[in-house]
Amino acid sequence: MDQEGVRVCFTFDVDGLSLLSAKRRVGIRIPMEMEAPLRDDQGHFFDLALAFLNSAGLRQTLFVTGKVAEDEPERIEAALQAGHEIGFHGYSHLPLASLSAEEELAEFLRTQRYFHDRFGYQLKGMRAPSYSFGPRTPGNMRQTGMTYDSSQAGCHPFFEADGGYWEIPVLPEMDDWMHCIRFPELGFNDTPKDPKEVARIYRDCFDYCYREGGCFVTVWHPFVTMSERYRPVATELLAYIRSHARVTFCTMSEIAGACAAGRITQGRI
Ligand SMILES: [Zn+2]
């Protein structure tokens, strides 16, 4: 750890309707009542996520699918204008490891070209949809100019020498789906936890990363953590983190840049 202390990034994965289509394409039945929340995930709740970050004076990273970006160019533009980073989260949200070489490359290229042509923007890193990072993924990252991934579990960034990219891992408990969503069709069978319990789990995760001197990264989804029920958890966690010395909020590409510059101790846990 250096003088900037623990790096923190509140990342949001914006799956929206891509999640619905991707699951239906592999034959999973998605109940009708999930359609509206997932539509709002890339709409109203995306706006709330931006408002939450902007009002806190934070510039963070949102991983969006190429399809969501094509559907919501004004929202992407608003995020970029506010100084946030947009990262790659697949084009269609299909698991990358399940795709053919041609299909996976097409996901990268279509999204990269869209961001280049529509926003003049270079995507710098990614989180694999459903954490499905395939053997061909590093090659596709290199081909499209990405330098980091955030799909593995942990809190210490490290250089993946074989793939030639930085891995900025996340603690699995920081994924809001683990606690706040009941979705039996996707294997989430438990009753959603009380917000107080979720807040305690997140604080414990931060304490662990703080002690370890690692990076603290959330995997939040706008329709989950920006819902009326769980939004106070995000606000409370922000205040808790800000009560600590030696904490720096930054985007994921800034974390990757600090790693590349040798300013962050690397190592696996
Ligand atoms: Zn996702």
Observed structural traits:
13% strand; single chain; TIM Barrel; 43% helix; binds zinc ion; four-stranded mixed beta sheet; 12 helices; five-stranded parallel beta sheet; alpha/beta; 269 residues
What does this structure look like?
With 269 residues, this protein is an alpha/beta fold. It has one domain (6-260): Glycoside hydrolase/deacetylase (TIM Barrel). The chain is 43% helix and 13% strand. The strands form two sheets. Strands 1, 2, 3, 8 and 9 form a five-stranded parallel beta sheet that branches. A four-stranded mixed beta sheet has the order 4-5-7-6. Helix 1 (16-25) crosses helix 2 (35-41). The longest helix is centred in the middle third of the chain and has 19 residues, at 101-119. The chain is globular and about 45 Å long. The two termini are 14 Å apart. The mean pLDDT is 95. The site of zinc ion has 5 residues, from loops.
